[in-house]
Amino acid sequence: MLGGVSIVFKKLFKIYAENHMVDLLYDYTSILYQKMMSIFPYNANQRLENVLGELDESIDFKETPGTEYALYAKYLCQKMINDNLHDQECMERYKIGDLLNEIDNIYTFDKGFYKADYLKSIVANQSTMYNTQPRFLYENCIRRCNVNVCKSNFYYSLGKWNEKHKRPVEALKAFRDSYRLDPNNVKAIFKLAIERKRNKEYEYAKNFLQEILDTCPDFVELGNMPLQDIEFWYKSIMLFSLLIDSHFKGEWEEDAQKFLNFVDPKQNITEIPNKYFIKRMYYDDEYIKAVLDAMRCRVDSLHER
Predict the structure, then answer these.
(1) Most buried among 5, 10, 129, 286, by the most CB within 10 A?
(2) At 106, is the secondary structure helix, strand, or coil?
(3) What's the rounded Cα separation, in Å, for the pair 231 and 235?
């Protein structure tokens, strides 16, 4: 087994056992994984298979407390393998219908583990045969969840599904509910800012964007933020700069350049402070470069839209 992968996922096992956060960690890793494929084209799926092996070796699925989280990790790895194969125009290794049925095994260990429905929703999105299911799965998560921050994320996912399926009114309502339940949800805030800009309500749009920008008043704090929040911070800068007079753009362009310097994969990785989120999440220089390259590709795509 690749030593680095083994160490990283052993740490993840500890995290989900102690904090039940495996879904959040995996979800964001999967967002970046497609771009990382360009750097690790030959062994990406093997790395995921290694993770599956590590799970099977490390966890007794009948006896270990928190087995539902281990199963969540296992089935999400299988979903990610299918994603990678799809990008290579290959047949999925794990049949979607079978995987959806297997995810139901999670309820054997915890009947109230509604996040299994969330996992089913993102698996169902992989196939046109099942892509009508996520709407009802998201709504089920919303009904069963009693934590506003989590419920906010489910509303956001529901909004994205509605957006994808050309249901703009329902999408906007879901994004508003997401923001109502968690005013710090930067994804929901950004969606509402875009909606205000689309309606030419520029002052309202700027107010929403300012909420995101205020999460990082000092660039020194940027490195301590989760990577997803950093991306939305940059996207907010770029959108904000479109809404202000040209003679005010210089300051915002300087902040944008600081971000681009931060995600520059050619920088000396050893000079990144150890306290930064990316150093704590990805200890290996090769992984850090891959993640930075992924982030840079994602934000570069903004300029192509």
Answers:
(1) 5
(2) helix
(3) 6
Helix%, strand%, coil% for the chain, nearest 5: 75, 0, 25
d(CA 294, CA 206): 28
d(CA 62, CA 56): 11
**Would you say 51 and 5 are in contact if contact means Cβ atoms under 8 Å apart?**
yes
Residue given tokens 């997401």 in the structure block: 178
Domains of the chain by residue range: 1-131, 183-305
pLDDT in tens, 127-186: 888 988 999 999 999 999 888 998 999 999 999 999 999 999 999 999 999 999 999 898
Chain segment 203-236, per-residue pLDDT in tens: 999 999 988 888 765 655 677 777 777 888 888 8
What DSSP line would sit under 206-229, residue for residue?
HHHHHHHHTT-SSGGGGGGS-HHH
Supply 83's token pair: 């994603």
How far apart are alpha carbons 139 and 72 in whole angstroms?
19
The size of the chain, in residues, is: 305
Tokens 């930067």 -> residue: 186
Please check whether residue 32 is in contact with residue 291, taking contact to mean a CB–CB distance below 8 angstroms: yes
Contact of 82 with 93, CB cutoff 8 Å: yes
DSSP 275: T
Q: Locate tokens 């990790």: which residue?
A: 73
pLDDT in tens, 15-37: 544 554 444 444 444 444 444 44
Query: Distance (Å, rounded) from C-alpha 179 to C-alpha 182?
Result: 5
Cα within 13 Å of Cα(155), Cβ side = 27
Residue 237 contacts by C-beta under 8 Å, 6 or more apart in sequence?
Answer: 213, 252, 255, 256, 259
CB 293 within 8 A of CB 35: yes
Span between the terminal Cα atoms of the chain, in Å: 40
pTM: predicted TM-score of the whole model, two decimal places: 0.74
